[in-house]
Amino acid sequence: MPKIVNKAEITIPEAKALLDKVQNPNQFQIRTTEYVKKFSKLESEKAKELVDTLTKQFEIERLDAIQVVNCMPRSIEELRAFFSTGRKRLILTEQLERMLQLLDKYR
After folding, report:
1. In Å, how far from its chain's centre is CA 66?
2. Domain 44-106: what homologous superfamily?
3. Which of 16, 34, 47, 78 could bridge 73 with an S-S bond, Cβ 3.0-4.6 Å?
4. Residue 107 to residue 101: CA distance in whole angstroms
5. What pLDDT tens digit does each residue of the chain (107 aa) get?
6. What is the rounded distance in angstroms from the CA atom of residue 80 to the CA atom of residue 19?
7. With contact defined as beta carbons under 8 Å apart, do 42 and 70 qualify?
8. Based on the number of CB atoms within 10 Å of its own CB, is 9 exposed (0-12), middle (13-18) or buried (19 or more)?
């Protein structure tokens, strides 16, 4: 069994980049690779940069930023769904509009 070197939450594009480096993948890795290729919406570096920008500029949690980047919502309604549950702080419509503008720059 491989040794875990690092544990961190990553975006789907980052997972794709890691899986592309695997030589002789097992069945689970092959299925996961198929999934991430289908649902990856950005390049790995751009996804990482966008997560950092979202967390700094909009002061949202890293996990929320990762989910936003994984889905790349196209409307305020879709974006609002990420912040409307649990004990997350309220994000104003103006902030959501600015967030969508930022996402549009990365599409």
Report:
1. 3
2. HRDC domain (1.10.150.80)
3. 78
4. 10
5. 678 888 999 999 999 999 999 999 999 999 999 999 999 999 999 999 999 999 999 999 999 999 999 999 999 999 999 888 766 677 889 999 999 999 999 99
6. 31
7. no
8. exposed
